[in-house]
């Protein structure tokens, strides 16, 4: 039971993930960070089977960084998402498919625009302005449908995030105690506390 959602404006993207890790009816961890910084301007958040999420995410993180070292240039967010999709597709065709859903977001310094990519465990990919994975998607997508517009500011993005978290708290029977909120923009990736939004 994971909560993972994100929203992208023209020059920023905001990622929200819950901090809990559960197995069956037992909460194993309450302070997990389910995001991975792939480059200084690209962030990936993951949800799915705990073993697959950590192993596959570390594999992707290592390969994206290796590409940057070998070529003296980091992958753009769209190139990173395409690479991830290719690796998921290869795993799907092998005997070891990965049960991992991801949101990849970033700020492209060349085009000066942010982007958000929705990727599921079947290696389907879509570039969209807002997205969600997990059971929370039943509640947050309707809020984002109603509130989103292409010209939102970072402050308006935070307001939408607050409304999404409120909808999950009010309607979802399982209480997610805390969230990791990260922003990706021209300054890079940074974490934001709930109290600051």
UniProtKB/TrEMBL annotation:
Q: Which Gene3D superfamilies match?
A: Glutamine Phosphoribosylpyrophosphate, subunit 1, domain 1
GO MF annotation, one: hydrolase activity
Give the matching Pfam families. Proteasome
Indicate yes or no for the key word Hydrolase. Answer: yes
Q: Name one GO biological process term.
A: proteasomal protein catabolic process
GO CC terms in record: cytoplasm; nucleus; proteasome core complex
Localization, per the record, is: Cytoplasm; Nucleus
What keywords tag this UniProt record?
Cytoplasm, Hydrolase, Nucleus, Proteasome
User: What PROSITE patterns does the annotation carry?
Assistant: PROTEASOME_BETA_2
Q: What is its main location?
A: cytoplasm
Q: Does the keyword NAD apply?
A: no
The record's CDD domains line, in alphabetical order, gives:
proteasome_beta_type_2
Q: How does it assemble?
A: Component of the proteasome complex. The 26S proteasome consists of a 20S proteasome core and two 19S regulatory subunits. The 20S proteasome core is composed of 28 subunits that are arranged in four stacked rings, resulting in a barrel-shaped structure. The two end rings are each formed by seven alpha subunits, and the two central rings are each formed by seven beta subunits. The catalytic chamber with the active sites is on the inside of the barrel.
So what family is this one in? Belongs to the peptidase T1B family.
> Briefly, what is this protein's role?
Component of the proteasome, a multicatalytic proteinase complex which is characterized by its ability to cleave peptides with Arg, Phe, Tyr, Leu, and Glu adjacent to the leaving group at neutral or slightly basic pH. The proteasome has an ATP-dependent proteolytic activity.
Q: What is this protein called?
A: Proteasome subunit beta
> Which organism encodes this protein?
Coemansia guatemalensis
């Amino acid at each position: 039971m994971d909560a993972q959602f994100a929203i992208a404006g023209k020059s920023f993207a905001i990622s929200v993930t819950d901090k809990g890790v559960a197995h069956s009816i037992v909460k194993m961890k309450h302070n997990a960070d389910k995001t991975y910084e792939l480059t200084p301007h690209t962030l990936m958040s993951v949800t799915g089977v705990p073993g697959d999420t950590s192993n596959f995410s570390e594999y992707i993180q290592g390969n994206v960084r290796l590409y940057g070292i070998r070529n003296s240039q980091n992958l753009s967010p769209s190139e990173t998402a395409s690479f991830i999709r290719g690796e998921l597709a290869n795993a799907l065709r092998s005997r070891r498919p990965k049960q991992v859903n991801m949101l990849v977001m970033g700020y492209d310094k060349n085009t000066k625009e942010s982007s958000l990519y929705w990727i599921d465990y079947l290696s389907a990919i879509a570039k969209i302005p807002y997205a969600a994975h997990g059971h929370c998607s039943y509640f947050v997508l309707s809020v984002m449908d109603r509130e989103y517009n292409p010209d939102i500011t970072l402050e308006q993005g935070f307001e939408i995030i607050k409304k999404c978290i409120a909808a999950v708290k009010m309607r979802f029977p399982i209480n997610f105690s805390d969230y990791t909120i990260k922003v990706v923009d021209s300054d890079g990736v940074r974490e934001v506390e709930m109290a600051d939004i």
